[in-house]
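User: Continuing from earlier, I have the next pair ready.

Assistant: Great, send them over.

User: Here they are, in order.

Assistant: Folding the first of the pair now:
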Amino acid sequence: MTAKEIMRLSPDARLALEARARVGDDMESFVDCVLLMAWKAVENDKNVPDEKKEAAYENLLEDVIPAIKRGFEREIQNDSGRNN
């Protein structure tokens, strides 16, 4: 999902996304759930003015998305080493 899609999720869609991520069968849902948690943190941060929350979230994702990808790549490498 894109940052805009994450920010626009309804409460029911947020719950459904979190449920899919907890099942663990779908890596994309897990990543989207991490991004949702990041948005919720920004959304609930009283130190960030409402009009700057979207920009703050998009800036945060510039760091979060590469870190998630690095973590997954590392985990995949570890798993393939264990399976040999």
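And the other member of the pair:
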Amino acid sequence: MSESQITVTPYESVRANIIEYDADTQEVIRTTESLHFGTTPPGQYSVPVVIKLNVVNVQAIDNIRLAIVKTGAQGTGASGTNNDDNSVTQGNYGIEHSENLVVKSSLNSFFPGVNGTEDPASAFNVDIGRLSKTESEYIYLNVKMPSSTQVSYVTYRWFFDFY
């Protein structure tokens, strides 16, 4: 009886860039690895941050999903009905996406929960569309600030197929 073996081949030339935009000017702010939601009073939502995923050295990406994999003490607070992209109508961590870069002062869709196992097929992932073969739609993210006694942080994870 032989054992099955899975071999993972690294794709060293493939790079995922997260590009942050200024919605007012529609200019690129920076390529980033971390997001800053600014100073916001406890119990209020931060101003949405606008980003886009751009993957280089591939022919195309598809099946783009974004998930929260870790949060601070407040959790996601997710509830309400599911939207077509798997987001929900209430929560602490906002997410919307669009083909157009527009100014948004608030968000009406939220992450449905924490994908703690970092599973690409998790029900807690939000489906994101594509603008081009190698770029996601514009993604708007915000955070409801917890009380001053709670630690606030969030870790996001991208999932996508490429060829």
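Worth noting for the second one:
The domain at 15-162 is CATH 2.60.40 (Immunoglobulin-like). The chain has one domain: 15-162.
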